[in-house]
Specification:
By secondary structure, the chain is α/β, with parallel strands linked by helices. It has a single domain, classed as TIM Barrel, CATH 3.20.20.300. It is 42% helix and 13% strand. The chain contains twelve helices and 13 strands. The strands form three sheets. A nine-stranded parallel sheet has the order 7-6-3-2-1-13-12-10-8. A two-stranded antiparallel ribbon has the order 4-5. α5 links the parallel β6 and β7. The longest helix has 20 residues. It is globular, with a radius of gyration of 19 Å.
Length: 343
């Protein structure tokens, strides 16, 4: 069976006949879910099972962005609520030990929600170190403005996910925390010098470079490659992500349907792979775009295939955990950080 080096979305709550046929024929490495795909636990469980049946791989990855706050695809009342990472950062600023515990519980509780419905990868933790003049695109999603704190909290959150049987994805490598515009709508340009980037933006990614997966940023770093965003820059991927940061895990693009990128979907896919990304991520579920991505995506082989295999080795069955007691503890910790907001 030939698996291709892309991750696809889908349109709705159930797989359409044309989607089932597409997945069976084109064999994307994984599926990513969004709010439009998630209504109830039973429905999502059926959706993830249908995808795996279509591709004929019981371990085919299913991903989600379940951060908390603005970026949570599983929402109340069907699933528990979670705050944005900034709240955990606030708690850590007042009490580092309690902040670390909250970050671990955040990851462990989210993993409990995900693993029960067939989701095995969460695009978390977000390691972007926020700066005061940055766009709201990251904003309170960031764990804070201190690289060391972001690294410590990100590690705890990743460990919590792993303890629950879910693989973490660090993002947005090599750092999007100082971008002044939103890559969903345009191409951000970061003009900081390389030394400043290394000391501030890259540092949490260096600290967590041993983790199995990372997602790129659609940001131009003018001091490194003034012509291309990280996702399509062989210079950024080779010299910064792989060499300077030292990340040798599975590297996936951020969503290629964002307006930060140019060219048609086949061109985007080819350019991203040529730059050194292992996987292209296409999220919006539009079947014609999915077909263009699939046609341009190579077979997942060579070093990219090895990295994908190592990711599976990282996954372990969930360790014992009392989710009821854990959530009670977590809510108590987060109350000290003002979440949920008191009326």
């Amino acid at each position: 069976m030939t698996v291709k080096a892309f991750i696809s979305g889908c349109e709705g709550l159930r797989l359409l006949p044309e989607e089932l046929a597409f997945f069976e024929e084109q064999q994307p490495w994984g599926l990513i879910l969004f709010k439009r795909n998630c209504e109830t636990p039973d429905q999502v469980r059926a959706l993830t099972a249908a995808f795996r049946a279509a591709v004929g791989r019981a371990d085919a990855p299913v991903l989600i962005d379940q951060e908390g706050g603005r970026v949570r695809r599983l929402q109340p009342p069907a699933w528990p609520d979670y705050p944005a990472g900034g709240r955990i950062g606030m708690l850590a600023g007042a009490d580092p030990d309690r902040g670390i515990r909250a970050a671990w519980l955040h990851g462990r509780l989210v993993a409990s929600d995900l693993i029960q419905i067939g989701i095995t990868i969460d695009c978390l933790p977000l390691l972007d170190v926020i700066t005061p003049d940055a766009s709201d695109a990251i904003g309170d999603r960031s764990l804070g403005g201190d690289p060391g704190t972001v690294a410590i909290l990100g590690r705890a959150m990743a460990d919590g996910l792993a303890a629950g049987g879910v693989c973490p994805v660090i993002k947005h490598i090599p750092g999007q925390g100082r971008a002044r515009s939103d890559s969903h709508f345009g191409l951000p340009v970061v003009e900081a010098g390389l030394d400043e980037l290394a000391e501030h933006d890259f540092a949490p990614f260096v600290a967590l470079a041993d983790l199995p997966a990372a997602m790129t940023s659609h940001v131009v770093y003018s001091a490194i490659d003034p012509d291309r965003p990280a996702t399509t820059s062989a210079v950024v991927i080779r010299d910064i992500i792989r060499e300077r940061i030292g990340f040798d895990g599975l590297l996936m693009s951020d969503d290629i349907s964002m307006k930060a990128l140019s060219g048609d979907y086949g061109e985007r896919t080819a350019t991203i792979h040529d730059a050194g990304c292992d996987l292209v991520l296409h999220c919006n579920g539009r079947i014609e775009e999915m077909r263009a991505v699939a046609d341009a995506a190579p077979r997942l082989a060579g070093i990219s295939g090895e990295r994908a295999s190592r990711l599976f080795e990282y996954l372990r069955p969930p360790r014992p955990f009392d989710a009821v007691a854990g959530r009670e503890e977590y809510l108590g910790l987060m109350a000290d950080a003002g979440w949920p907001a008191r009326v």
